[in-house]
Amino acid sequence: MTDDVSELNFEQALRALEDIVHKLESGEAPLDESIALYERGNTLRALCQQRLDMAKARIEAITLGPDGAPTGTTSFDAG
Predict the structure, then answer these.
(1) Predicted model pTM
(2) CA dihedral angle for residue 44, residue 46, residue 49, residue 55, rounded to 10 degrees
């Protein structure tokens, strides 16, 4: 298990996080391994959040004029 998760894409990081959650919930891992898994899971969670935030920033909503023609784009804001 490599500590560098920065090269993982969102789907890979999410899959790895799901595997960690499953292993922790099953109680298969001894305490020391559970702690290491938890720390890696926290790193993966942060990476997934960062990737989602970056994707959100790239999403743009098309602005339509009165005639229905696109007039430009505005940044997506789900808030």
Answers:
(1) 0.71
(2) -80
Q: Where are the domains of the chain?
A: 10-75
Report the Cα–Cα distance between both ends of the chain, in Å, rounded: 36
* CA dist 27 → 7, 20, 23, 33 (Å): 29, 11, 7, 11
Cβ neighbour number for residue 36 with a 10 Å cutoff: 14
**What is the identity of the amino acid at 11?**
E
Residue 63 and residue 51: Cα distance in Å, rounded?
25
For 23-61, how does the pLDDT look when each residue is reduced to its tens digit (9 = 90+)?
A: 999 998 999 999 999 999 999 999 999 999 888 777 766
